[in-house]
Amino acid sequence: MPATKRKPASPATTKASASENKLAKLGLRSDMDLVLHLPLRYEDETKIVPIRQAAFIAGSPAQVEGVVTECDIQYRPRRQLVVTIADDSGTLVMRFLNFYGSQTKQLAVGTRVRARGEVRHGFFGAEMVHPAYKAVDEGDPLPTALTPVYPAGEGLSQTYLRKAIANALKRVDWRDTLSPALLEQLKLAPFEASVKLLHNPPPDIDENALMERSHPAWTRMKFDELLAQQLSLKRAQEARRAKGAAALPVVGDLSGAFAAHLPFQLTGAQQRVLQEIRADLRQSFPMQRLLQGDVGSGKTVVAALAAAQAIDSGFQAALMAPTEILAEQHFRKIAQWMEPLGVKVAWLSGSLRKKEKTEAQAMIESGAAQLVIGTHALIQEGVEFAKLGLVIVDEQHRFGVGQRLALRNKGLEGDNLFHQQTVPHQLMMSATPIPRTLAMTYYADLEVSVIDELPPGRTPIVTRVVDQNRRDEVIERVHAAAQEGRQVYWVCPLIEESEALQLQTATETHATLAAALPDLQVGLVHGRMKPAEKQIVMDGFSRGEVHVLVATTVIEVGVDVPNASLMVIEHAERFGLSQLHQLRGRVGRGSAASVCLLLYQSPLGPVARQRLMTMRETTDGFEIARRDLEIRGPGEFLGARQSGQAMLRFADLQTDQWLVEKARDVAHGLLRDDPATVEAHLARWLGGREEFLKV
């Protein structure tokens, strides 16, 4: 039987599916997705201005209507389409520098055109460059609402989006997910009225309130969005608590000996945070705690004491860090504390030789290694734990969600009953403090502990902002510090010359300083060196044999050399605030007065100036994080969290903090009393994308 030929798709069907694919790329798959795709801004097409009058409001958008009197392609100074339209009051030129051949037909002489754009005065009088336009008949009615302008992807016209959204508005289920009593209590506008107003605002609306998103219709959208996020995160937290975890109740001989052998006393803040973690580890559901502490506040020792509790309870612990330098720093420090107490600490990184790696994996799988420290190598195939009870992730925002999950899921591997029923406890550490509002929204599913006290004996760091022209004075300062027996970091933003940025590079700076300071040992560390080469230089610096360490940002976290008391950051204007704060935290770890010099290249832009002034004014990590959030906004602040979660589209954490708190309280009540509303609200706002919020 001959095969039946498939009927080719009609051009209209193909075009529709192509447009649907483009909508899907914007995340617009359902009618409700389209309805919640709200305008970026609005254009007022509700009135026509006479051309003569439009000529006097240069610099502002205006809409005119006229008949085409000339339509020419001109070639000087470049190829362009020049169209003249006229009404009873005067003439205006529409100039198109990029155009299609078909536009000459659309704009043929005699066509009546409605054009909207910014009027400016050209050589031949009033003109609009690339105005929005359409052909109309005389007397065609004007819109009665402001025209929405939507966020659009490549190949999606505003006309197509407006039509798709208008159709979706007719089809969706408008039932309000919030009860009338709740709306009354919160003083919120109804959902349907709010959405329809935002898509088609009347011309007499308060345009400032609309554009600044302070209108009651916007308030309703922001609240609903925040509520969906809070519900999803809190539900993820409940789901986690429903899972089993092995209780780690024993604070035994190892924990006691470890605390007794420490050469320093824990601060009050460290003791408080340790008690919070210990209480979590005793539970039979998995801990998910974020340990925040400023640079140098002593998070590592708290993490090591948590690991000791896991080991005392008969389980393994694993610590994963984002860079080899940081992971090795943790390994050396913690092994120095724990191995004399009989704990076997294993080291695993990508740079190990095959034989060393195989030996480490065998120890991990047999359970002989009670504590495992390493980089991403911990989550690779072939690494299996005998009995993983606690996972510690340092600088957790530097890992993607998939990587953090992969390490946690190492506790689910294997055949015995223990693995199948439980997941490990998880402790995440961050030296980048999260401002409170951000923690309430993006970390609502985590318990948060804060070490808000620095160990005694830490000296405050003085920060100075210095123009690049004074490099010679800075080099003299470096020389003087080294002669006094102090060590110096000199940090550069690039490894190799970049013509675009023309920055001093690490290799060039190393050569310059080595030549200028022949009596000093100047070392160089950057990300392209082999780990073994890096370690030789770092060891020399730790022992005091290297006086000046020129480095890229590989030394941003974890490097602990108490004798280093001077930090020079080259082209400081190129760094973000949290990175500058992290780098500065490498000094001030001993008893000597410490100084951080921020070298900058003039002229400074307003954002760079704001960052450097913040660094000069405060060393408080939480204040720096708050200002960083103000400067960058939450999207960029959390960018490295790589969570896959949708950032807030409508709410603004700086202006809408009051709404965050209301949404959190309402979410708590709904989860307790009204599961049907929770389901309906999440279906409307997340539409099956809730899994993105669950780490």
UniProtKB/TrEMBL annotation:
It catalyses: Couples ATP hydrolysis with the unwinding of duplex DNA by translocating in the 3'-5' direction; ATP + H2O = ADP + phosphate + H(+). Gene3D superfamilies: Nucleic acid-binding proteins (2.40.50.140), P-loop containing nucleotide triphosphate hydrolases (3.40.50.300). Keywords: ATP-binding, DNA damage, DNA recombination, DNA repair, DNA-binding, Helicase, Hydrolase, Isomerase, Nucleotide-binding. It is an enzyme of class 5 (isomerase). Pfam families: DEAD, Helicase_C, RecG_dom3_C, RecG_wedge. It comes from the Bacteria. SUPFAM superfamilies: Nucleic acid-binding proteins, P-loop containing nucleoside triphosphate hydrolases. Its EC number is 5.6.2.4. Plays a critical role in recombination and DNA repair. Helps process Holliday junction intermediates to mature products by catalyzing branch migration. Has replication fork regression activity, unwinds stalled or blocked replication forks to make a HJ that can be resolved. Has a DNA unwinding activity characteristic of a DNA helicase with 3'-5' polarity. Belongs to the helicase family. RecG subfamily. This is ATP-dependent DNA helicase RecG. It comes from Noviherbaspirillum autotrophicum.
